Amino acid sequence: MPLNIVIIGAGFAGVFSALSARRLISLHLNKDPAAADIQVLLIAPEPQLVLRPRLYESNPANLVFPLTDLFSATGIRFIQGTVDAIRVEEKHVLVASPSGSTSIQPYDRLIFAAGSCLIRAPIPGLDDHAFNVDTLSSAVRLENHLQSLKSKPPNKARNTVIVCGAGFTGIELATEMTGRLRSILGKDADAKVLLVSRGEEVGDTLGPGPRHVISRALRQLGVETKLGTTVTAIDALGVTTEAGERIEAMTVVWTAGVAATELSKQIPGDKDALGRLRVDQDLRLPSNKDIFVAGDSACAPTGDHSHDALMSCQHAIPMGRAAGYNAAADLLNLPTAPYYQPTYVTCLDLGPYGAVLTQGWERKVVFSGAIAKKIKTYINGTLIYPPHTTNPTKALAAGDPALQSATAQQLQGKALSLVSFFTSKLL
Predict the structure, then answer these.
(1) Required co-factor (predicted)?
(2) Cα(282)–Cα(326) distance, rounded to whole angstroms?
(3) Residues 247-293: pLDDT tens digits?
């Protein structure tokens, strides 16, 4: 009777957990007859990976990676649909197909990698009039709207974009938006980008390390900021603030952070303030040993006892590798590979200005400007992509948890330096 490893989600964590599980199973096909009975099934609405970290860029419709050939080559079974319910006691999930029918998919091990979603405040007009770049469809909607502006009569509202939220996404979008607006409206257009935030600092969650670089980039690009400001209403022609100020704009983009998906609430277990499920070093749910969690759904210790993984592909990919390996290892009665990722790098895109690269959790600036932009381009265009091959051996190799030095043993004596890696590749 087959054993099922069921993966929910085709984001970075889901895809790399599938590759990792299949890799370990394949390595043991000639060693353990039980390996042939283990299936890896991935459930998602579409057989594609959306390059979500890049959705602030122009032409977002192109920012997808088709997965059908990769799954076929590696023996990953794809089930098209949406998981509506997770029944932990019965060890199965309910899957709604695109046609509307519902089926039951049992699991022996579940990897929950359903990701995160945009936090929406109870602001009048937010859902009807604000744009976002949280999903592919919403990013495409924003792009179509921006392109439509050139057919409208020039005025202050048409030429103004308000970005609500001065965190990672808000900064990348605002700095990118200056060039996008001018390419659409003309280089001589009186275009204005305004970054609005309730916080008193731009990028307050990023800390003081890169702040001077970010501020310099905003000034050089002409991005205006309005800090300590709360938006209380949004309509088709602008926003109203808590102070009663009216700001005209036909384009308002909401980037107020993300939290774990609603589906996370169906899994019993301790959760953090963002709704992420707290897991152990193996990415296993302490309250249910059959469930592993990876990516934005997981609040996972990085191994240095002071920091948890962030909602980023930088953490989602190695978490996927570890979760997939451990789920398969569990069924094969093999030792697990604890998730361990103490090294952290931030690379923030700053549009035409360049980028800023920081190292460590304190975010010490290492590179900025054109050099950092080159690194950011390499990350966005190469590093985060799944393997571009249908060769089973090469494709499955991308799921090896050792690629990220996943165990503490592998890291003893030599700390991984991503900055050195990037430098050797690009400089």
Answers:
(1) FAD
(2) 7
(3) 999 999 999 999 999 999 999 999 999 999 999 999 999 999 999 99
Instruction: Please choose, from the candidates 148, 159, 165, the residue with its C-alpha nearest in 3D space to the C-alpha of residue 250.
Output: 159
Cα R_g (the chain), whole angstroms: 22
Q: Taking CA 407 as the corner, what is the angle to CA 401 and CA 412, rounded to the nearest 5 degrees?
A: 130
Are 263 and 252 contained in the same domain?
no
Structure tokens at 85: 């319910």
Return d(Cα 175, Cα 294) in angstroms, integer.
30
Query: C-alpha angle with apex 44: 43 to 46, nearest 5 degrees?
Result: 135
- Rounded (5°) CA angle 307-312-317: 95
Query: Per the domain annotation, does 380 fall within a domain?
Result: no
In a domain, 71, yes or no: yes
Q: Tell me, rounded to whole angstroms, the distance of Cα 12 from its chain centroid.
A: 7
Residues 135 and 217 in one domain: yes
pTM: 0.94
- What whole-number distance in Å separates Cα of residue 184 and Cα of residue 246? 25
Percent of the chain at pLDDT > 70 equals 94
pLDDT at residue 406 above 50? no
Q: Which amino acid is at 290?
A: D
Whether residue 306 lies inside any domain: the answer is yes
Burial annotation 368-398 (CB, 10 A radius, 16+ → b, else e): bbebbbbbbeebbeebbebbeeeebeebbeb
Burial class (CB in 10 A: 0-12, 13-18, 19+), 168: buried
Query: Residues 18, 11: contact at Cβ < 8 Å?
Result: no
Residue range 299-325: average pLDDT? 93
231 within domain boundaries: yes
**How many other CB atoms sit within 10 Å of the CB of residue 273?**
7
Picking from 293, 321, 342, the residue at the C-terminal end of a domain is 342
CATH number at 173 reads 3.50.50.60
Would you tell me the crossing angle of helices 211-221 and 168-185 to the nearest 10 degrees? 20
**CA quadruple 76, 79, 82, 85: dihedral sign:** negative
DSSP 8-state assignment for residue 131: B
The domain containing residue 162 runs over which residues? 120-256
Q: What phi and psi, each to the nearest 5 degrees, are found at residue 239?
A: -130, 160
Query: Do 252 and 132 share a structural domain?
Result: yes
d(CA 243, CA 303): 45
Same domain, 167 and 241: yes
Q: In this predicted structure, what is the pLDDT of residue 419?
A: 57
